[in-house]
Amino acid sequence: MLRFALGRLLAAIPTLLFVVLLAFTLVRIAPGGPFDAERGLPPEVEANIAEAYHLDEPLPKQFFRYLGGVLRGDFGPSFRYRNYSVTEIIADSFPTSLLLGGLAMLLALVIGLGAGVLAALRPNTFTDRAVMAVAMTGISIPIFVVAPLLVLLFAVSLGWLPAGWTAQGGGRLVLPVLALALPQVAYLARISRASLLDVLGSDYVRTARAQGLTTAAILRVHALKPALIPVLSYLGPAVAAVLTGSVVVEQVFGIPGLGRHFVTGALNRDYTLVMGLVILYAALIILLNLLVDILYGVLDPRVRTQ
Amino acid sequence: MSGLEVEDLCIHYGDTTVVDRVSFAVDAGQSVGLVGESGSGKSQTALAILGLLPDNARVSGAVRFAGEELLGGGEAHLRRFRSRRIAMVFQDPALALNPYLSVGRQLAEVLKAHRLSNGGPLRRRIVAALERVGLPDAERQFDRYPHELSGGMRQRVMLAAALLDEPELLIADEPTTALDVTVQAQILDLLDSLRDEMALLLITHDLGVVAGHCERMLVLDQGRLIEADDTLSVFRAPSHARTRELLDASRGSVGAVADVPEPRRIALNVNSLEVSYSLSRGQTLFAVREFGLSLDAGETLAIVGESGSGKSSLARAVAGLVNPTNGKIDFRGEPLPAGTSARPLNRKRAIQLVFQDPAGSLSPTLKVHDILEEPLAIHEPRLEADARRRRIFDVAADVGLDDALLDRYPHELSGGQAQRVAIARALVLEPDLLICDEAVAALDGRVQNAVLELLKSAQARTGLAMLFISHDLSVVERLAHRVLVMYLGRVVESGPASQVFSAPAHPYTRALLAAVPRPDPLNPGGKAVLSGEAPSALTPPSGCVFRSRCAYAEARCGEQVPPAESVAADNNRHVAACLRLHDPELNGPVSAPPAERR
Lengths: 306, 598
Prior knowledge:
The complex is a heterodimer of chains A (about 300) and B (about 600). Chain A is an all-alpha fold. Chain A has 13 helices and no strands. In chain A, helix 6 runs parallel beside helix 10. By secondary structure, chain B is an alpha/beta fold. Chain B folds into two domains: about 5-250, P-loop containing nucleotide triphosphate hydrolases (Rossmann fold); about 265-500, P-loop containing nucleotide triphosphate hydrolases (Rossmann fold, 3-Layer(aba) Sandwich). Chain B contains 20 helices and 22 strands. In chain B, the strands form four sheets. Chain B has an eight-stranded mixed beta sheet with strand order 16-17-18-13-19-20-22-21, sandwiched between helices. In chain B, a hairpin with a 2-residue loop joins strand 9 and strand 10. In chain B, helix 7 packs parallel to helix 8 (about 180-195), helix 14 (about 370-380) packs parallel to helix 16 and helix 16 (about 415-425) runs parallel beside helix 17 (about 445-460). Chain B is globular. Chain B starts with a strand and ends in a 22-residue tail after the last strand. Classes of the chains: A mainly alpha (about 300), B alpha/beta (about 600). The interface between A and B is medium-sized, with 26 and 36 residues.
């Protein structure tokens, strides 16, 4: 197991390098630069800035300078937020997103899997149809509609919860977490229903019924573990997406999270910030997929022996 | 009344009736065979008894066990019977066991479900149950997972689970269909030996199995019970015409095998062929070793062997679907390049294949007409549209496909029809060599016979050579001119079919033939001469590959790979690879090998 994990981590290094190279090239291909302004700067100022940020060097040299920094844990200065390094920006905003995303994912897992199991146990009944209808709605209504609606209902009309991040206490977490969790609840309910239905129709579940096991025992012993496999495959990338924050949710609730930097960084041509985020995201994806693969092995003995 | 009574059982799915007013009884201690073709409703009947049908099935009638009604009592009521009084084993133990749980855990859950977990240490009792069904090394198997066991071992585990609570009735639904014939014989013997007081309802398509193991038999046809009597009486004097057809089909009432046309022309020659696969951790699996064969035009050579014998790898190497690691394949006197990409188009055209699973080997997105047209479009692109259409209709007529079927998609065909399409697709190119890889294994007896007839008539018409890969000796008997028996990648015996079947020389061939169930209650075959299963092809025994299961093995068998020798001095066509081929002890009666050597 340990050897497998180490091997996979080593194999991730070239992937990460490739991602860095790709990000580096793509941002620079994009028209415009970080210091383009409406009114052109005097050429000598522009030259000064370019020198300060090493933008006057040939591209390969810039790339390796950047890479050297990354290896030392230094993602360079932000090109836009003066006096801030990319590392500082990420360290500032990532914990907030991590907290919100983590809570949202936990909530989504509990509700989503519960609803999926409930629906799968009573296929084609009212319960099933109701769960699936809610899930379908959750998937099809975009988050920028759901989030303001939540604010309208719980903050403005009912006044139960604060609408923004400026409020103190845990109450300010509730609405953003709900908004982030809702689409995940829907996806997870659909996936877990489908996979559990599949397992419940399998020959070995029929065997277990013929052996006189109760439905509860069949679920606990025979069905839940295999039904989790497709859920796991979905969770890898989904968790990465949720943990890195959502621009829309942060915008609606005024949260200083990581998500908005993905957009503003790109719009501002903040080369170092964009690349820092890309590396963070890629590393997160690789790590989570590795975790998923390890969990496959924990769940499925056939994977373990391979 | 202590047995099972089924009365007026009906099963409907929507408007379709799959079981229609079926009534029968299984008395205490009795063994009853329930036979019928696929779709006759036999498995549905079995599942209905224990309430295991899917939710959309509508069931009516009565199912009583020891006087108590089972139908409509709800799950909790049924659980009092399931596995406690009526146990069930299913067809494919690879699917019927949960791949995520260890063997011991699965049996432990049964004990827990029956509240039997207090009668002493669980592990010891489960190991004892596994030993009772003859599972080798039961202590070690407790912690293993189903995928680590062989097919026969898995079915033993299923049986052990079924018998944990000493049920009064065991329902076995095709319990040996997924197993090799020598393993089937062992499992059926085991079933008989474990029965004691227990009644048995054995569901099977194989009349040979019923002949050897059931006192009474029931015949289902399209959901109706058409026969219920003593096995012997049914075999002697079936009362229903359909029963007679089934019996005839199982006895293989196919015309005699025609002679190979003279003068003989060699179609295929394979020399010292080796096919190996590289696995992880630097392991190499030798699927075929030092393999040779020759095949004449107009001749059918059957390659016989159990799973893991390498017969399919051989077929694929000849067809160019895998690259052999060594050896030479000559086709019509010219060397055949390895791999399809290296072969010229006309060579590929001359060798065609028919696979086991007819539905799976036809593209689901093409209509039958297009399936038959595709090979022509590739190999004869200049053919006029008119001529092309004529070829398609001709070949469809040749294989007995109705014109109306040409407009259908594969999923709208029956198994037999789909296999006819697969054969027509191969024949439309007028090949010189047809490779059939288990081509009739998925078909019912009557359909099997029809397809075999079809292959024979195609051969008589076109003089094609056939390489017929099969595990089923009763099928081979009806079709092949010559037979070649494989075991763990090597040829152990080959010769004219009549000679191999009437006077098998190699101990393995003899055991294989003895294990085939025969549809004759007085002489049912199905003898378990061999114990255990073939070792993994990854770790074959040294010397003679068969020696680990051979009753006649001696020390020298491990030192030398036996060369192929003529069975009789005056006959160089029938050869076998056994060091003791001419030993008088080996040539004694098959069923009584010397006891001290077992």
